[in-house]
Amino acid sequence: MKDEFLAVLSHELRTPLNAISGYAQLLRGGVLTGEKAEEGFDALERNARALAQIVEDVLDVSRIVSGQLRLDVQPVELPAVIENAIATVRPAADAKGVRLQVVIDPVAAPVAGDPTRLQQVVWNLLSNAVKFTPRHGRVQVRLQRVNSHVELTVSDSGVGIAADFLPYVFERFRQADSSLTRKTGGLGLGLAIVRHLTEMHGGTVEASSAGKDQGSTFAVHLPVMIVHKADATSRQHPRTEPLARLKGLSGLGGVKIVAVDDEPDALGLLRVVLEAAGADVHTFGDPAEALARIAALDPDVLVADIGMPEIDGHEFIRRVRSSPDPAVRAIPAAALTAFARAQDRTNALLAGFEMHLAKPVDPGELVASVVTLVRRRRLL
Description:
Elements: H1 2-28, H2 34-66, E1 74-76, H3 78-96, E2 99-104, E3 111-113, H4 115-131, E4 138-146, E5 149-156, H5 190-200, E6 204-208, E7 216-223, E8 256-260, H6 264-276, E9 280-284, H7 287-297, E10 301-304, H8 313-321, H9 326-329, E11 333-337, H10 342-351, E12 355-358, H11 363-379
Parallel strand pairs: 2-4, 8-9, 8-10, 10-11, 11-12
Antiparallel strand pairs: 1-3, 4-5, 5-7, 6-7
């Protein structure tokens, strides 16, 4: 099963990578101009986001299995959550001619839960329904109060679920069709994540289908929480938030930064982003060289990767913090790394970093984080 999953994972990763690599070459070579260039940039963003989603799904499963997934519980109004998810999947549904129907019981009470994770549950179910529903089909979302529970039902007129696969539909890495000729992509993790998140909220989820080409129905049952509606939140899950257009970067004028990363492209991106915000950036691909130059450069902020050969980011920041020069020891530092688990963040902070930023990082977030570190230093 693991071998099969790794083969599927490789395929799912290579598919967006192919689009990213291809469009990047076309844009660099000037083959795409004007409107075609805009379409190319849209494709780059879309496929980069698809890659990020794949990584997040794998990490979520890892957090669930290791018991490290935590919920930020608060009152949640499910109609707002559903509305956000519908808005996100509507373009894909419209492209296939799939009709989206929403039926919401006005007396459906709020639930106690993590709005980010509940958004993920609804998004996963909706996107799954749209993906497996053929052109001109129908997907219906229904929310209703049933005794002391709220029931969320997502039904479709799609390909259905075979009776022999129905008992395994929520298992990790299991797919009804993992053959080379399958019609839809995916890792087989979405529904497993739905089940785990639902159970963490004290609820249950069940699937039903009359069989092949007979559509399917997924029903999520969550306990009601008696709260005032004004206390509820409508925060979106990052996956359903629209990708913001970058208007410009600023705020780092006169700030000197030392950036360390053994990956040339990552280091180049760091320089481009930080210089665009006005910073004076000094980059190093070798942590040892950076350590030898830090005192002379006297930077305001350090930004360093964690996974580097010979001297990793943890050892790098430990040497900075143990420097005989008090000015070097006091330089604020951010870890910018692809190690994105909660334990990785803890390890980075314990080693001596003030911040932990997970790759891929939004350029605006990166600049804002560096600005925060600069302010901290100037307040000392």
